Amino acid sequence: MNSAAQSVAERLTGGLVPAVPVPFHGDAIAKDAQRQYAAWMATQPVAGVAVWAHTGRGPYLDGTQRRFVLESWRKALPGGVIVAGARDAAMAHDARAGGADALLAFPSAADPVEHHRTLAGELPVIAFYLYRAAGGADYDDDTLHEILELPGVLGIKVATLDSVMTYQRIAAVMRAHPDKLLITGEDRFLGYSLMLGARAALIGMGAALCGLQAELLRSVADARWNDFQHLSRLCDELSQATFIEPMEGYIRRMLWALAEDGVIPEDCCEDPWGPALDPTERDAVRRAVQNAHAARP
């Protein structure tokens, strides 16, 4: 691993990195709500945030929107790690110009090793194993080894959604690369993914209730297994109200969770690219947030 990638890896180790959504009012970014959200996040126990990722609708935002989002987070978190989603060299270049610290490489089915090598020419890279329904690609073990051997790649985020077997396979591959970070993106089995060796979490669920999820990571580091069991159950209950079918609705549900906590206004929870959701789902998210607060140790 080169020195730049090593530095970012050290800053991420043990930390929570929320993949942050963008609040919309109608089909326009709610800029005041975005700034309010970033200011709130600056008070939370996070290592940084991931912008322009799937949760942040990075591939759908235009250049002006992406610049505004990155600028707002960089200003709010001057000492935090800003990870920017990148599907190509142009996005990677824009991320570096905007002050990002690392890239989250959108999966590529066409020459994935060269894809990661190209992005690493701009910033340290986190590889990304993403389930196909969200636009991912299946990397076999040989491809994963080749990607992880690149000096500019600091680790891999794994988001299978529901394939424990795939996560176990990739965790086994990571044992051959002890200097690289296994970063969990598994909202639906967060606790178990940490038990398998993940040393950081980059998750959409982390967009809200950050303290709960950061404490779960600390309980693993401190071997407080009674606390871990309790916190893992609370995180599972939150994920079961937010990461459900239709799965693309999770972005709006996380915005609802933020509104329930008073972080953003109630009318800034639109996701222009997400599915329509039954209004009763908002009540379920509201209850999950309230229960998580009430049950915290």
Write a structural description.
The mean pLDDT is 96. The termini are far apart. The protein contains twelve helices and ten strands. Helix 4 (89-97) links the parallel strand 5 and strand 6 (102-105). The protein has 297 residues and is of the alpha/beta class. The strands form two sheets. Strands 1-10-9-8-7-6-5-4 form an eight-stranded parallel β-sheet, sandwiched between helices. The radius of gyration is 18 Å and the shape is globular.
Using brief descriptors, characterize the structure shown:
297 residues, 8-stranded parallel β-sheet, 14% strand, alpha/beta, two-stranded antiparallel ribbon, 12 helices, 10 strands
Q: Describe the main β-sheet briefly.
A: 8 strands, parallel
**How much strand?**
5-15%
Following the backbone from N to C, one meets helices and strands in this order, namely HEEEHEHEHEHEHEHEHEHHHH
Shape: globular
- Give the helix proportion (percent range): 40-55%
- Tell how many strands the DSSP assignment holds: 10
What is the spatial order of strands in the main beta sheet?
Answer: 1-10-9-8-7-6-5-4
Using only C-alpha atoms, the radius of gyration works out to 18 Å
Brief digest:
With 297 residues, the protein is of the alpha/beta class. The chain has helices spanning 3-12, 31-41, 63-76, 89-97, 112-119, 141-148, 164-174, 190-195, 210-221, 225-242, 250-260, 280-295, and strands at 16-18, 24-25, 28-29, 48-51, 81-86, 102-105, 125-130, 153-159, 181-184, 200-203. The strands form 2 sheets. Strands 1-10-9-8-7-6-5-4 form an 8-stranded parallel β-sheet, with helices on both faces.
